[in-house]
Amino acid sequence: MNRTRVLLASSLALGALASHAAPVLAQGLPAQPVGQGDAAEAALTSDFEQAFTSDEVVQADPRHFEAMDWTNAQARELLGVIRAIDAEGLVPADYLPDELATALSANDDQQIDELASTAFAWLVEDLRDGRTPMANRSQWFVVDPDTDRNPTAEVMAKALETGDIAGALEALKPTHPDYAALRDKLAATPARATEERRLIRANMDRWRWLARDLGPQYLITNVPEYQLRLTVNNRIIRSYRTVVGKPGRTATPQLAETVEGVVFNPTWTVPQSIVRGEGLGERVLNNPSWAARQGYRATRGANGYISVVQQPGPGNALGVMKLDMPNPHAIFFHDTPSREMFNQDDRALSHGCIRTERALELAMTVAILGQGASRDEVVEISTSGEYTRVPVKKTMPAYITYFTYGVDIDGNLREFADIYERDAPVFASLDAPRVRDRARVSSEEVIEVVDDPRDTL
Fold it and tell me: Is the CB of residue 317 less than 8 Å from the CB of residue 206?
């Protein structure tokens, strides 16, 4: 049994066992060994038995690979892909083209196997996950699921089994039409326009940081564009102007979360930085008539702790709705009574959360699409004036992204202001040699937003 067949046998065995051992497999199995003959099969069996008997299972890195058997024809096809990879905004020299060409000329089977396997694996990683290291992705907290969905060894084994090397790599590229638009723009941009080409390449790579397929319906906002899109089958159904975080510590981070419900007529629990730091708690307790007009209710505990909650109403700082999308950053989409802010060109004005225009329309649409309530029910709920959380049966992904060059809501490719200065580290990574053994998740500090939705112009 050759090395390719061993890995394929491993993949098939994993699939057969999955339905009976989901809790164990969810934690991951050890990387499968590569070898020949009965010894390799025995080692596979040992690994499977260990996975079900060990108390502690170490999750295999889905980027792990070992050299497989390549025919000369397959290696030449791979070399052709490498030499044309600049069309995807990547650098051919990163993927060992000269070394692989030399091995092919010498007909050195061992070198061909090792070099082709390595180059293919690196291409998989960069096309699937992005070339930019996590350390150069400022405030990027999206976890790309494609790494687990398409493990490197499985992609390579399938490519070698089918003989379609180029097709296996093509299948890893983002499916969103905006990526294709950037790719076409890169092809049309002359080599002398180095700065524009670098900007296009950086934003093509940002698409690879996301899931290859964003789903049939989702919310996506491009922070520098100040726009939120409700998208079905990658087509914009509705768009909404937004207000996003101010630059600095209150900048809006990049996330991929799930909308689990819609809150109509929300309450606002005032952060202690305002209750204590700004003295709001004492003011509410000492001025009941003013507090009533503002909708504030305060309670003082036995230990002196004051909590303040603003009740639903026309002056509520969160407006008439918020989308419930739990995350450690406390970021969500919400309404605002200060709707004049949407008339500004520069709308990086909030403490981190994202305010949306026509928020009630958005809330109703999400609730209906999510099968949480009917049209008549959401009208009744929204006009009741009472706090109501509507859970949705069909949850919706919400992507908070950061593109400085891309397709705007009118379908035009254009540049957006780099409001948080996040381009420079991406440019630096593209100009530097390819980084190996990259981290999969950000090590940056998770800053829980202490939002003050009262911010006005």
Answer: no
Half-sphere exposure of 455 (CA within 13 A, CB side): 20
| Sequence-separated (6 or more) residues with CB below 8 Å from residue 343 | none
Nearest to 256 by CA among 64, 400, 409, 85: 400
Average pLDDT, the chain: 87
Q: In the chain, what percentage of residues exceed pLDDT 70?
A: 85
Q: Which residues contact 192 (CB under 8 A, 6 or more apart)?
A: none
Q: Of 362, 354, 310, which is closest to residue 449 (Cα–Cα)? A: 354
- DSSP category for residue 396: E
Bridge partners for 140 per DSSP: 254
pLDDT of residue 134: 96
Q: What angle do CA 49, 54, 57 make, to 5 degrees?
A: 100
3-state secondary structure (DSSP) of residue 8: helix
Angle between helices 194-209 and 423-431 (to 10 degrees): 100
pLDDT higher at 5 or 109 = 109
Q: Residue 369's closest CA among 217, 265, 220, 229?
A: 217
Name 283's bridge partners.
none
**Cβ–Cβ < 8 Å for 422, 403:** no
Measure the CA angle with vertex 151, ends 146 and 153; round to 5°: 155
Phi, psi (rounded to 5 degrees) for 29: -105, 160
Three-state SS annotation for 59-83: CCCCCCCCCCCCCHHHHHHHHHHHH
pLDDT for 45: 40
